[in-house]
Request: fold
Amino acid sequence: MKFDMGTQVLTNLMSGSRTSSTDLGTLIRQLIAAAHPLEGKFNGQGKVAFDSFKEHSDGITKELNAALSAILGGQSGMEQAFG
Reply:
């Protein structure tokens, strides 16, 4: 059985994943900044949810970056295996 996917497929995939990782981090920071003016405008469950979001936003960002880093690691491993 022959498997041929092209010489640059995984390299291009890793490049796109790195760009996506950067874009995602930027979008999360923009979301947090956009939510800042809303602070103090909620009551009850809305306030609880908003405060929870603000409190956990750094952790969410770190977890998403770690997940994308693991994806990049897997792509790198595939490139080495197929190389």
Notes: Residues 10-82 form a domain with the Helix Hairpins fold (CATH 1.10.287). The chain has two helices and no strands. The mean pLDDT is 80.
